[in-house]
Write a structure and sequence with these properties.
- The complex is a heterodimer of chains A (248) and B (262).
- With 248 residues, chain A is mainly α.
- Chain A has one domain.
- Chain A has twelve helices and no strands.
- Chain A starts with a helix and ends with a helix.
- Chain B is an alpha/beta fold.
- In chain B, the strands form two sheets. In chain B, strands 5-6-7-3-8-9 form a six-stranded mixed β-sheet, sandwiched between helices.
- The chains are: A mainly alpha (248), B alpha/beta (262).
- Chain A binds chain B through residues 2-3, 5-6, 10, 13-14, 17, 79, 82-94, 247-248, and chain B through 45, 48-52, 70, 73-74, 76, 78, 80, 82-89, 93, 96-98, 100-103.
- The structure holds adenosine-5'-triphosphate (ATP) and magnesium ion (MG).
- The site of adenosine-5'-triphosphate has 15 residues of chain B, from strand 2 and helix 1.
Amino acid sequence: MGAIYIMWLRELKRYVRSRAQIIVSLGQPALYLLALGYGFGPVFAKAGAGSYLQFMAPGVMGMTVLFTSVFSGMAMLWDRQFGFLRETLVAPVPRLHIVLGRTLGGATVAIIQGILILIVCLIAGFRPHLWGAVPASFIFLVMIAIVFAAMGASIGSVIQDMQGFQFLMNFLVMPIFFLSGALYPLKNLPRVLGWITHADPLTYGIDGLRGILIGSWQFSFTLDVAILIALAAALLCVSAWLFSRIQL
Amino acid sequence: MIRVENLTKTFDQFTAVKDISFQVDTGEIFAFLGPNGAGKTTTIKMLTTLLRPTSGHIQLDGFDPWVKQREARQRFGIVFQDPSLDGEQTAYENMELHGILYHVPHRVRVERIEQLLRQFELWERRDDYVKTFSGGMKRRLEIARGFLHTPKILFLDEPTLGLDPQSRNQLWTHVKALNEAEKTTVFLTTHYMDEADRVAYRIAIMDHGAIVAVGTSAELKARTSTDSLEGAFLALTGTSLRDESATSTDAMRRFAQMWQRR
Ligand SMILES: Nc1ncnc2c1ncn2[C@@H]1O[C@H](COP(=O)(O)OP(=O)(O)OP(=O)(O)O)[C@@H](O)[C@H]1O
Ligand SMILES: [Mg+2]
């Protein structure tokens, strides 16, 4: 237990201490929100789909949580490079505890970032259909954060260098974002694209956020929750397994 | 306490450790000497659950470290050759994290952290980020951290690399005291012959992945008909330089050191 806590705390400390990084990492989603939200707004409204800002705010929240949590897991690469990973690998605690602490820490940071970007959305003019729904949306923030922090930790356990990191950013993380319905509705897509979006874990997280915050569901609360919980459990197991196999 | 039989480690094509066997008794201080790239660190990694042996058997206090990782890890402490501190945390936080990972109870932890940080003259800098420390200070912190809990077996992989004489002295005094008071078994590697001569009961000389001789300093000297451990070392391993792994400045420094002493 102590090991989980201290590894969790370490992630949190790193976050709180890097104030510059907090601003930078909120900058990107804020840019999406403002540039795309206001930019595509008129076209979206003309197509009879309502307010684009309303539509994409939950998507941008999902995006923030996705990137923050995956990055936190991949940050294991730095610990490998600077050697701190070694210290945790020989400690007399199950490696499961180490990786769980790291993952939960990364997820906690991602949830905080998600909430901060929600505030940015509210300032930018986003209005949830029910104010009471705002706390309920945290359920989905938490699940998205855990799924992707565990994915990040799995990746971090495997990649050894910057090339691997770049490759996975471009060919896994970016597609997860673009194919998730964060930026456009998933209705009436070409068939193959439709299948791919259904295979994207983030799709269900964004659907949950959007459902709760603006009352528009593609799937249903139960389906989204079931899929995200199953994925979180599976990815936590995968990360624990991969982490326990690390050799240096 | 440590028993190694026919241990081999092969990376792709390259065999870093070739069929070595040795034994370290409980309460013994055992030193590995060998030129750069001899396979010392690789051996320690296999002993400490970081690497899986290609073949051979290891027993740490009766446990195979690869199969019974948890049991093995509970028995040893280690100071790595390469840095393993968290630069984004303070010296104190690094110590505390270690204490928690190694189940050192709170009261003992607070006491020992202060005592060790004072002993290695880091107490005044305890609240500074480790990334702001000099190389030697980082090294001292790693060593202080390694002494925070009291394991049955202590692995020290070139612990004195880059340390000033005062800290080096502190380190060996502490190691000897631990060894006497707690019967801690110590397994160390070093490039400083005088250190091995001073602290180790027995010395194994390793070269090109194999152990070429094992014995007390006196035995090694007698075997090679030399009057210093340095002489014995050079007689056993030759004088050519072989560092595939070390950086060139490191190699230069070590090279210069070897020749100065003659
Ligand atoms: N992960 C690895 N992959 C490939 N080769 C490796 C790996 N680790 C070590 N080696 C090689 O194994 C050999 C032994 O390395 P090792 O680090 O054990 O030497 P050492 O005796 O500790 O040397 P030094 O005194 O320089 O620390 C070296 O030639 C090194 O290049
Ligand atoms: Mg070495």
